[in-house]
Amino acid sequence: MASSSSTGNSQAASTTTNAPRTKLPALAAYNNALVLLPPLEVARRLAPFRAVHDKAGTRWTSHVTFIFPFVEDRHLDTTLATLRPIVNAFEPFDISLTSVGRFAKPSGDTVHLCPGKGIKSQEENIQRLWKAVASAVGYKGRAFVPHMTIGQAPNSGDQHALEFLNTKADALLESVKDIKWTLGSVVAIKKDEKDGGIMKFYDELFLQGCSEISYQPGPLSQHIYLSPSGNWQWSTDIIPESLATLPEDLSIATYNILQDPLIPIVPRIPQLIDTILEADADIITLQEVTDESLRLLLTPRMAVYRFSSRDPSVVCENGRNVLILSKYPFTSRSLDTGNKHKPATLAIFDLPSSSYTGSKFVLAAVHLSAGHASALLEHKARELTSVIQYVQTYHPNDEVVIAGDTNWPHGIKCAPIEENQAFTDVATALGFEQPTYDPSSNALAAKTVKENKNAHRYDRIYIRKNSSWNISDIGLFGTQEDAPSDHAGLKVHLQREDVTKNPHTITTSTLPNLSTSFEHESHEKSDPEQSLGSCSITEKDLNDSFTTYDWLPTTEQEQNMAAALELVRQVICAPVERSSQAQEVTQGAHDQNSSETVPERATPRPDVVLKLEAVGSYALGVHTCESDIDCLAVGNISPQTFWLLARSRLLAQAKQQTGTGTTVVKLRRFVKDAAVQMMELEAHGIKIDLQYCVAPKLVERWSEIPEIPVDSPLFALPASSLVTLSAYRDVLILRRVIPSLSAFVKAHRALKLFLSRRGLVGARFGYLGGFHLTLLLTRVAITLPHSAGRSAPHLVEAFLREYAVWDWTQDTVHPIPAAAAVGTGAYKRVVQREPMAVLSISKPQKNIASNASWNSVASLSHGLQTANATLQSGGTWLDVCGTNPLKSFIDEYRSFVKIEVHYWGGDCMQGRALMGWLESKIVSLLVQLHMTVPEVTARLWPQRLVDESVVDPNTRDPNSFYLLGLSLFSQGDEQTARRSSGELEAALLNALRTFEQNVRSNEKYYNAASTFISVSHAKRTQLPSSVLVDPFKWADNGIDLADEGDLEEELEEYALEAAAPGTTQLLSIGLSEEAGDDWEGYHIPSSSQRKRAAAAKAKARVTPHVPAGKLRTSTDVYNRLMWDATGNVAKDAYVIGYEDRFKGIKETPLTAWKREVEDESFIPFHRVVYFKRLTDNVHVWDRRTKIDLVFGSGAGAS
């Protein structure tokens, strides 16, 4: 058939190509498409996986895109009529899925199955058919690559996600590759806006001799049952109720069967099946089911369960999945919870409507995210809330049970259940508090436990209040000594009460009413948003924007962030153990060679107490995929001692874990000279910024902080300490006053996405930062009507409506009403210097928008007005965020200020400092422009840009520019309004020249030998035709390692400062490689000891004086030889000579040099003496003689 088909199709292609055609309309409609559809069996095997991992999986059935976009609705019928004879000229041909392919895109990698690839006849037939259709409709796009998408990896750098997707793709291909079908048509599909945007069947263009209508694509409701022959079958039809009905006594169970690579599933399967059968529940939901365990479980031994939510021949969508087994028929569907790795599964059973409050019995099977950190608790709360909201909306009157592994720790209130007040925890109602996860009694739990070894009641069953079912009994199963899982199963018995006989005597309605300290509105209406009034945005709009731009952290990111924070807490806050002998030494150390003695203390030295808490976006739960973690350490030791202690512990844990494969906390940078000192750390791939606050009395009562009055003497701290501490106090206050934290989090993330996309983010540029947005949104949330403040769409709309008309020059933003604010006093604003005022919460109160300029405020106000107008005119949230905001920004202005910066110095640390300094100066340019040319508004795009045509992925130096769009300001005063365009141009150029000269005159950052900065006025036509955000990455991955001022020396200086007479010091620490990290033996050096040590250190560094220019640093030379080796000498032909503390000068290969502080072989750059070329034994750089043959500096400089 393939041979004759190929010949016939060749003739058809020739005929259709030569035939005259009518010109067809443009292909501009994204609501219509031409596709090739596989058989129903292929679609159903791919559907579960695509629903989770393909962004379009819930709206598009499995398909091969033929022409998309297609013609508009008004031209659809005539176009299809034109194409019908063209398609009908082709003979049907066989097709099958033969391989896995991948498209690499900036937003993420798309994995797909390839139809016909590798089979010449299939490839040729598909291409001929496509070329005929494409030619007929005037298609001018990319070449046709037949593919059937199955999913996208989050981003191009997420190798784990990509590997998972590829592995699953291979399994999916294996499940469908034997299904060969005859392609008989090209199908036209059309978006149904009234049904969630699902692409539905519209018309079909048949190939020659075909007339069978293809199935109509849409959501596939799954109904899987065990046939009498022992095979699992699938049907879209509802099985007749006569087959079986739910009994009046119904038992439901939940059981996590454990998936762990270190605990194989195969040996445990027989015992797992025994445990499940012994439980004998009518309906059971299993968690952590895999492709392997699914096939092993659904065997004839489990025939008592004739109905399943999964077919063993269909690949599961995730590594750990939920499975529902039942003795009674049901239909099931997957429910998105906001975490694609943790979807819920709904099982829907029919009920006789005459005997029940509703016509359906709905079981929502869940497996929530793991972890006990506050951010993860909020994450799983959102997952559970999404389930509750769904059943409240779509099953308002049906019987509903939620069951599964909630991973909710014992002793912590389950906020979604208690706030909603519509469901009852069955175990709590019966006073049943036995744990289902207990490492002390379960051997497998003891192996899998990680952060918390306490027993927990993770597995739970909730039933809707006022149900027709009474709770009669509850118990555990799978608790034997050699249990096959780390969890025990939970089983509950329900008894139906006929509501027609006694509709008011419902046991669940008389159970205790759980509540929190906040009042919550009733949830009687099925659609919560309907009671809040109309809103132009929906929850789905916000969720779609998050998905489109991969804005939310993945589950893996959330887990890594929680693990990173906990690891830092363990390392930094570990108890300090000191023997009595060590205390005696520190209390009275005596210098044998001098008359000086450290005064003895009248009282014993107090213990070191340190507390570490997350602050900022992560603490509040508003973090995104781009966020890092800010954390604050509070203690009773001085800053000098704390940084010494932190450094010592970081080095100690790095050495202890070397070679073990255990994750360590890496020290990336120590910012010593800033107003607020900070360490930048990294753990589990997460960047962490650590600050420190001294509060000796407060840290002893740390758990009481939320209740301590604001005027307490405990807060009588220096202003610098209060500013640092307020980051944590603000989080506590915000959590207390925000009406609905879950709605606030979603609204905050949506607004942050909008601001980020539209170039309105960046506190250093005078735009909004994350905390600015938090305070602005808080004010809106607590001033809205009670119910509206609990809806994310209403919050977003109210935010734009409020601040689009806000008078920033006159009105000050007070984030919290006076009654709720803590310790705030009247703030005196100077409008001339503060065009925007957003006040902090805790005292000392300050304006956190101090970087705002008149130009940045005007740009922000215009952006908010435009967004609000877009919504009011019927635009979507995606329209507000913009498809290509950078291009829109460039198209909006006719002229620009262009700040070009070129750096070729090779020193990454110096280059970063240059870029950061230049960005900090742009604010002053905005101020200067407003003063010089107030008639002109300048809007900065807050990202470094580059000409796409000159982007070199291998470049080691940034060569980019910043743009400020210029437009006339309509409200200039009369005097300035009289100036001609020539006068304005002259004033503008004068301001730009002044700024350029000021930048170039700064010797600290600007070095003409390695840097060039120019500032010019450019027309739009003078800009590159294609501009993008600069993708440049520093060669050292952004790690600052000091050279002459190495971290070690800085901290040694701290050690001397910490021991200085008169310093209030609670602990002394020495930095010594010989002593390791044992606290015993450390003592406070006397004054004479410190003087002699400093003198000896200075003497050791003396080198003969050589008259010469400034010598380039060893870091510069290392970078040049490693990354830009000169001549034909390879980098492995160089060695580094460095000074060993005990053995003098030693040599090591250039390529073996370790730059990371936590590496066991780390050597600071200030110990480098020379770089030598092995081919001729020439020192190409020598600190002693100031020779530099690499850059020509030092003695070789002209």
From TrEMBL:
One Gene Ontology cellular component: nucleus
Enzyme class, spelled out: transferase
Keywords, in A-Z order: ATP-binding, mRNA processing, Nucleotide-binding, Nucleus, Transferase
Enzyme nomenclature, EC number: 2.7.7.19
Keyword flag Transmembrane: no
Start and end residues of each MJ1316 RNA cyclic group end recognition domain: 1111-1183
GO BP annotations listed: mRNA processing; RNA 3'-end processing
SUPFAM superfamilies (alphabetical): DNase I-like, LigT-like, Nucleotidyltransferase, PAP/Archaeal CCA-adding enzyme, C-terminal domain, PAP/OAS1 substrate-binding domain
TM regions (residue ranges): none
Biased composition (Polar residues): 503-517, 582-597
Gene3D superfamilies: 1.10.1410.10, Beta Polymerase, domain 2, Cyclic phosphodiesterase, Endonuclease/exonuclease/phosphatase
Name assigned to this protein: polynucleotide adenylyltransferase
UniProt source species: Serendipita indica (strain DSM 11827) (Root endophyte fungus)
